[in-house]
Design brief:
Elements (H helix, E strand, L loop, with lengths): L8 H134 L3 H10 L2 H5 L1
């Protein structure tokens, strides 16, 4: 029995079988490997995303740690600066104390030197006064009365020489 429009059911059945074989072959040859490839690729990208998230979390942790260390370093710097300033003030005070002690020593030595110089001047002046007193005494002892002096002068100093 012929079908209208020249359609052969055997040909249609063969085409459907070819389509089924082609679909099955493509499913096993292309679809399954492509689907596996896509699943692997999807898994790969999930792993990359997980690694990125892990690295981001690690970077955040490291950032937090460094921030804490930086704050700790700022505190250490502040403490070191305060300690250095205190040490500097202490050193300046020690130098000031040493300078004052040296000044007291210099003043004490100067006073002692002045006292020694005064005592030496007193001894020298006392010796000079003694010498002057001795000289005056000697002159007074050697002093002759004015008439004898006149005669000595008149004689030209011969009388004094004869004595």
């Amino acid at each position: 029995m012929p079908f209208p429009l020249n359609i052969d059911p055997q040909q249609i059945l063969l085409h459907w079988m070819n389509l089924a074989i082609l679909t099955g072959g493509l499913y096993f040859l292309l679809y399954k490997p492509v689907k596996q490839f896509m699943a692997k690729r999807e898994e790969h990208y999930r792993e990359l995303e997980q690694q990125a998230e892990d690295k981001l979390a690690q970077a955040d942790r490291i950032h937090t740690e460094y921030k804490a260390k930086l704050e700790g370093a700022d505190e250490e710097i502040r403490q070191a600066r305060a300690k250095a300033q205190q040490s500097l003030q202490q050193s300046a005070q020690e130098q000031l104390d040493q300078a004052q002690a040296q000044a007291r020593q210099i003043v004490a030595h100067a006073q002692a030197d002045a006292e020694r110089a005064r005592e030496q001047a007193m001894r020298d002046s006392q010796q000079e006064l003694r010498r002057l007193a001795e000289e005056a005494t000697r002159r007074l002892a050697l002093r002759q009365d004015p008439f004898d002096q006149f005669l000595d002068l008149a004689e030209g100093g011969k009388r004094n020489e004869s004595r």
